[in-house]
Fold this protein.
Amino acid sequence: MNKRLSGFLVFWAIAGLFSCEYVNDKHHQQLNQPIHLRVIWTEDPTEHSIVSWTTLSRSSRNILYYDTVSRGALPARYAFELPAARSGKITIKPMDYEEGVPEAYYHHAELRGLLPGTTYYFMIENNGVFSGEYHFITAPTETESFRLLAGGDSRLGGEKPRYAGRTPHVVRQNMKKRIAGLVEQYPDIYALVHGADYGTTADWRHLYWYFEDLQLATTSEGRILPMVVSMGNHDTALGFFENFYLGDEINGKTAFNYFYSTNFGSEIALLTLNTEISLGGMQYHWLKDELPLIRRDNRWVLVNYHKPAFPAVKDPDDYRFARVREYWVPIFDQHRPDLVIESDGHCLKRTPPILNGQTDPDGIVYIGEGGLGAPLREPDMLRWFMQGGFGAKEYHVWMIDIGTDRIHLSAIGMDGVVLDEYTISK
Ligand SMILES: [Fe+2]
Ligand SMILES: [Fe+2]
């Protein structure tokens, strides 16, 4: 071999090694990159939050770094370092493989002992691969203005798509962008109360894309709006429990039933109920005991669940809705939450105040029906509980502006236009 040729070969051998290294490095980076970042609130968001994320490979080092000041995504500078409390492989079914979503792992870190009304900056590390810095704000104990967003049914992501990964899910994405825009416009929005039906199923081929789209709800400055989650009829798969971890216990009972109360500071409480398990039994007795207590201790009480007592679209006589009226509404009528939020119908609705099965100025207003991206349906305005209320076939998210003596509701459409407004006074 002449000198020139051997020099040439040595050069390419070294270059090859470096490029292999580079490819390996890129692969490692991709597999361990923290994605799908989200913040979940449970019973006491003044001091407790769950930060959840996904990686595409099993990682042994899953760390959340956090602090009350921005540390510019330099991990060594953050005051607190917290390993994920739960990590594991997300269940993958044959159809998930067919639809081409990657195998993945969930991670959940539980932050406790946080300060109320405080901005927490955080970043995540998986096996030496880092996220950027994000932040969220804990619930304040006292506040002049406190807003929540409420919405449900983001599952398919637009008109007539068959599968959110293959077909465009533009509507869902636009609604997520609208949420980010609202949080930028109104920094006193503290959380999104989610009325469930996140994906068509809670299998990974659907939740993967839901979490991808959810990233669009993060503001341009990296603020993540915490979510209070509930369970819907499209969420009854193992993937829901794996990816929406609420801790082991809430309110001193198992968290895996997904009914619980949340205290946003000292004056505002939210009850999350689960229409996908028995409405009687344990849940009924808990509601009967819990609602009078939180009614006594809070200025404002809200309730959120998926299947409506007063459906604007689907057949009200169907047992799925009739049983909500049979089991829960009498308890509401007795203890009077200020507002009830429902989903599932895929339209925009606001009932007139309802008490004891009829319109009554002293009654409870039921809003919602789910407009975050599932294909829309026409509400039936002839139903007694829609007359004197409002209904529309519109994508929307509700903004709930809670003051000292009134709650102001506005339904915000996909383009930011206010579609309906209503005030509940004390
Ligand atoms: Fe739905
Ligand atoms: Fe539903």
Observations:
- The chain has eight helices and 26 strands.
- The first strand starts at residue 35 and ends at 40.
- Residues 3-32 form the longest helix (30 residues).
